[in-house]
């Protein structure tokens, strides 16, 4: 591509309304422009990147054996009624009526449409497994679209849906998708982690999110220093470490006037939060008579309760709900001074975290206003109902797979694979005939990649103060050639043209910067745009038979022979 | 692709609701399925074809120098207000509101969005010309969607918009697009004609439609038997042929009681319609005082008035409006018996078609009830104001370029290129600085291809009673290999696998039909799906060292050596 025939739309200033770096750089590099809130037009610079991501995703999906389909953006509301989501989905689901007053939605996802297709087309278990994918426009009417294409209203997804005779077949395709996603993000040149994710309310049995690691990520990812283990922080198991030592101290009541928080109490008593427990008083599930029990949870003073883990315990209500003031009073509990002592005897359920369970001689509330106790020991001073994994993992915790310790980094979710089970196939009646001739409900999986989001995530992971640093596979151009003073020196332009033709013939995606601009303007544009390789053709180099080369991450340019140059380009 | 891992969704019966052959065959071959009125999901079979069309269009657009962009499907209504189309566009423009009650439309086209982008990004004439394209989902809320993807509500368009400093630059890009479209449809393997089209109310200066010729087409295309000339029938010039002979007959009044139509009169008088003129009394444009003149048009009796041509005459009102009964009475005109005699003298404007102008000794109305005249001659018996091209061409007319004669065939419009001029750039204020430092309004062109429609049009042009006959470039698979009795004969399956691997390695898109189905079922599926080459591997052939080959258009299969087979595949 000749720069003179391309649309450069670089901006010197950082736009005011762009909060995150990828949004700023995509605007500044002339990749996207806002059309309306949450709606972006992709300029030629951005579209080149988008189409490269698109091509890699398509290639790997085809390689995996998935079959490409293409479903409408507009979907009849009736199908969403069948799945129950027409009511359940919030205002993110854009509902509208056509000219004949028939209700439709703009598809944020395609489970209903593909399941409808499958129930009509699939007849026999012999046709299974099948995995259908598409790369297609989606719409989600976000209340506050932001971060550019990271959280826009219209976006491009690669979504896939698989159909199976049984769980074993689903697991097989799920594993293939896991490998396919790993290959896709590897080919895209991104530092990513597949992490175990919560299956949440959809109720599937297994789920992994694929996160691009970036300081600006919205999610905390826990992963092992020494193995492949990675999980969302809320999903990572906090394993039991060590054993409880015998009691050495006597149980002692101490005055802690107005010291209600762990931090206050520990400072007041000059003790370590790790040597204390804190109480969280929550509700259990109501019984048939409408009576709602109170459950006391105890964690080590420096640990955080993990709601999702707590909600999995059958004696704790989901969603997690704290006990009311009234409930506390009924049980004679004192907020801020609550300890485990005597609670089981009062008929309360007491669930303690694994880390709290191995403490001895610890500090706890004394169940009296302005009093705590030191030298508290389980069994001797306080009974409990059960030990349970209740907390978020923290850095330094052992990895649950026994290898290495936990590190926590931030990630941007760019992919998600999910064992759906029969949620949609049951709701829409998607059945096929089994080997025994009887109809059965098919099992499903779904697999998504946010194609437009990947572009933003790649930037969040790869930038410096000069601009974007593209991984080679998705750079808008791999190489830029800059002839010096091209408008005065036919010699540099001619040499640039020769190299341009040569590199193109070798399959490189090359930009010949033949614009009538100062070199400084060109250089900063090319750095902002993140072109991996820059080659400057000047008079001196031509005399010396060298090329001035600078990789996008290099601090300095260097003069290279042709062979050296060609070697650099393959890096 | 192994057929056992693919979704076959062929139907034996022709679906009831499919009127046209492409719709029937796309359903029967398992290419598409209806989701709702005018909304279709593309199954794997159809998607393969769609993506091949897509790839050829993208390759040729890139080669032309056009820059790919990607704009949202959802567009703010305000932009459509600026162009005036929010009001002008009918209910085909789907209007809706988002969760914040802001008005949007689902884009049927993107002139407004791209012009908005251009007015923000383009600063100087130096950046021009630029041509932006996208391949993207469009929505048009057709009142009665039909013919499958031929006239669906959601469809895929390649749309392009070019920006220019002047008309000469527009013409240059227009010519490049003309050639690009010709290359695209040639590569797609279609018999097509670029035809001059009416620029209609958009008011641009030049326009060509690209039509795929097919008996089921909605448009009549006039083209030369001996040159490249082609135009919509309503656009083709009817050239003047011959000279008027001298009068030989006397002007004679004849009784023609109740004979009002040309057919009736000619039968009654035993004369040829070609030797008569018929009158069409229409309105001229109203003057400042609101007075509306009557204009008399005369055509040869066997010719049809062309409204579009007539409307181009400054003395004829557009849209074409017939004179009222009252107006006829005011001028003493008698419907059914109107001739040109004496009209100019009465102050009427008389415009006669070229073919009518060279008649002599003809039949015309006598301007009296139940009377006609024979032996009528221009000048001697009837004056006229002007000769003008008023009629539709008919087969056998000379081609306007002087080469060959006119033939008329039906076509399906699949592409349209259009010189927009400044319609949108003016309405939206898209200006750049000129060489003189002063802002000027840019000139635009637009260029569309109905990508989904091309697929249907290709079928309308290429089918037989067995199914689709794909041009090789867009066939879902180029070659199908059928091992006979594969489930009993490992030998045929093994040979099929070997050939499958070999052809794939050579870059062929191959289907290995390893389904556990009878050969007859496979053969009819493959014919229905239109696979260009079929190779059957049987025991006998293996013994003889031959392959049974059948091209999709061949009447019979033939046994070929390996070399002969490979030669066939390159056909």
UniProtKB/TrEMBL annotation, chains A, B:
Keywords: Aminoacyl-tRNA synthetase, ATP-binding, Cytoplasm, Ligase, Nucleotide-binding, Protein biosynthesis. It catalyses: tRNA(Pro) + L-proline + ATP = L-prolyl-tRNA(Pro) + AMP + diphosphate. Its main location: cytoplasm. Residues 38-471 form the Aminoacyl-transfer RNA synthetases class-II family profile domain. The keyword Phosphoprotein does not apply. It is found in: Cytoplasm. PROSITE patterns: AA_TRNA_LIGASE_II. The keyword ATP-binding applies. GO terms for biological process: prolyl-tRNA aminoacylation. It is an enzyme of class 6 (ligase). Signal peptide: none annotated. GO terms for molecular function: aminoacyl-tRNA deacylase activity; ATP binding; proline-tRNA ligase activity. Its EC number is 6.1.1.15. It holds the Pfam family HGTP_anticodon. GO terms for cellular component: cytosol. InterPro entries: aa-tRNA-synt_IIb, aa-tRNA-synth_II, aa-tRNA-synth_II/BPL/LPL, Anticodon-bd, Anticodon-bd_dom_sf, Pro-tRNA-ligase_IIa, Pro-tRNA-synth_IIa_bac-type, Pro-tRNA-Synthase_IIa_type1. It comes from the Bacteria. Catalyzes the attachment of proline to tRNA(Pro) in a two-step reaction: proline is first activated by ATP to form Pro-AMP and then transferred to the acceptor end of tRNA(Pro). As ProRS can inadvertently accommodate and process non-cognate amino acids such as alanine and cysteine, to avoid such errors it has two additional distinct editing activities against alanine. One activity is designated as 'pretransfer' editing and involves the tRNA(Pro)-independent hydrolysis of activated Ala-AMP. Belongs to the class-II aminoacyl-tRNA synthetase family. ProS type 1 subfamily. Homodimer. Consists of three domains: the N-terminal catalytic domain, the editing domain and the C-terminal anticodon-binding domain. This is Proline--tRNA ligase. It comes from Acinetobacter venetianus (strain ATCC 31012 / DSM 23050 / BCRC 14357 / CCUG 45561 / CIP 110063 / KCTC 2702 / LMG 19082 / RAG-1). The lineage of its organism: Bacteria, Pseudomonadati, Pseudomonadota, Gammaproteobacteria, Moraxellales.
